[in-house]
Amino acid sequence: MKLARFDPAAFLATHWQRAPLLICNPWDDWECPIDPDELAGLACEPEVESRLMVQQGPENWALEQGPFDAERFADLGALPWTLLVQAVDHHVPEVAALLSQFRFVPDWRIDDVMISFATTGGGVGPHFDQYDVFLIQGRGRRRWRIGQRCDDATPLREHQDLRLLAEFDEQAVYDLGPGDVLYVPPGVAHDGIALDDDCMTLSIGFRAPSRAELITGWSDHVLDGLGEDDRYSDPMLPLQLHPGEITADALERLQAMVLERLADRSEFARWFGQFNSAPKYPDMDWSPEAPLTMAEVRRATEDGRVLRNFASRFVFVRETEGLVLFVDGESYPCTGSAARFAEALCAAHEIEIDEPDEAVLALLLDLANRGAIAFEEDD
């Protein structure tokens, strides 16, 4: 499936992080990449993050956390309910393939694909997100109400589990059918209500690190590299008029001590690459049962392709000589052929290998034993 009737450049120039946009079935041939039974099956798996919301009244939502027993869905009765499953792209290749159509936004900004299934009247309540989202109607029909701009000061209802808006200022209403896409920028209130019993919505969310996350993570990283001997000094201390004063010169030297380390752009780039590429679910182990050897990797590359694990994050940062590849929180400085290969690997989820040298083979061996890549023989 391809976004055949959609102009990414025009969208980025006019709507990205500016205003909601309804995109009426822009696909060449839309087909929902997952069915309700498969989604319910994922929600029963202990390694998959899932939630169930049951609407017990007009203003009353109850939240349950997965994994669920299969019988739970048969016991829900006539009450409107919604099942939400996170990171479905990690487990269903056909869902992961959808992300290729949204790579007009850089990979480091893409988070995952959450999928919801709802019965008539089901929804998660009026809310706002702090990130961009494309809402793709997979099956059935859903009505989306678009509301006001929100921020941290926007009043919320008293609910121990959910961040639901206390007030909703309806400004637009869109009824979506299969293949329709609704883009919602960060901070815009929205409320989706299923219009039938076969309503499935795929939500492509984007990462947006907060300033607090960046400052905390980066400063903690810098602190880890500082020793006790790295201290303030003033060997040319002048005699000052008042002993109680912290002089402007002293303050300038103190602040410079802080900013000098925090302003190291090269080190920040390496830290952020690791921070950003860290796996969403670090406890999941994708590594092979038995570690591969260099000989096995060499044989695998002779007549096969490299396949990226859809659950792994691949990004890179260019440096003066080559680049640094980041995969699942690990960094790989690459030059020459390894740099060219790493860049190609970040561009596609499967690539052919043409006579890899020792540097490329060493990179492949490490990535394969981490479960970030696998090999597939050509037909």
Count every beta strand, where a strand is a DSSP E run of 2 or more residues: 17
Assigned CATH superfamily of the largest domain: Cupin
Would you identify the CATH architecture of the largest domain? Sandwich
Taken in chain order, the helices and strands follow as HEHEEHEHEEEEEEEHHHHEEEEHEHE
The domain count comes to 3
Largest sheet: 8 strands, antiparallel
Strand content: 25-35%
Apparent shape: globular
Q: Count up the helices.
A: 10
Highest CATH level, the class of the largest domain: Mainly Beta
| Intertermini distance | 23 Å
Query: How do the strands line up in the largest sheet?
Result: 1-9-6-11-5-4-2-3
CATH topology of the largest domain: Jelly Rolls
Low-confidence stretches: none
- Computed structural class: alpha+beta
Keywords: Dioxygenase, Iron, Metal-binding, Oxidoreductase
Organism: Sphingomonas ursincola
Protein name: Cupin domain-containing protein
GO molecular function, one term: metal ion binding
